[in-house]
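REQUEST
  id: r-88c1
  op: predict_structure
  target: DUF2182 domain-containing protein
  payload:
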Amino acid sequence: MARRTGTREERIALALVAGLGLAAALYTWFGVGMPMSLPQMTAMGGRLGDPMRMAAPEQWGFARILALFAMWWIMMIAMMLPSAAPVILLFAALRRVSDRGGAVTTAIAAFGAGYLAIWAGFSALAVLVHWGLRDSAAFASGMMALRGEMLVGLLLVAVGLYQLTPLKRACLRQCQSPAQFLTRHYRPGLHGAARMGAHHGVFCLGCCWALMLLLFAGGVMNLWWILGLALLVLLERRAAAHPLLPALVGAVLIAAGLAVMLPGAVGPG
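RESPONSE
  id: r-88c1
  status: 200
  body:
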């Protein structure tokens, strides 16, 4: 009986993660609230540092700010939930020991809400970056991408350097060891579940925020950059036995950034 109960709760957690992740992926794919869908924006992409020139979008207002925030947050949900699934599933199994019935499902939702709230904060900051660059010659508003090989190259180098920092490694270790995280930071009750989710979200943000900024290099709505970064995050989480992977990624990004800054070295974006 205990095994069947545990399996049921884990299935609930998996269904919540898969359902929300799929909904977020579809929202991003169809570009809800944006002028074009994700495939259309990807097809119109240009070279790194030289995005296709498009007419500037409508004037900034509450509706546009809200649409951009929704785009960023839902895209973050689609990109980050797959890598967060192990800790959510393990949390569901852990809460089964102390909670019963619907309380476990509610706790899973609270944990997920706390986690996603951290990425909502990141998304709000990303919108502020959009707003700050809206009239800059260094930003193609229509394609939502940085303009200029030097600027894009510097971003790649900066993100590559962050990959080599102790903060990156410390946050990544927390993300790679969900059992250890839950043991150290366990809190009872729904409020505790939300706090735990937010706490894990902070570690996740510390691990991945710089990588997410690379969307400004390739284009915020560029399918290949979104898939590539999501896969990279997933690989880093699963590579506890290969601690040199983040450093290797950092070295590649630094080399790519230097190459982008060299005249005539940039290939198709």
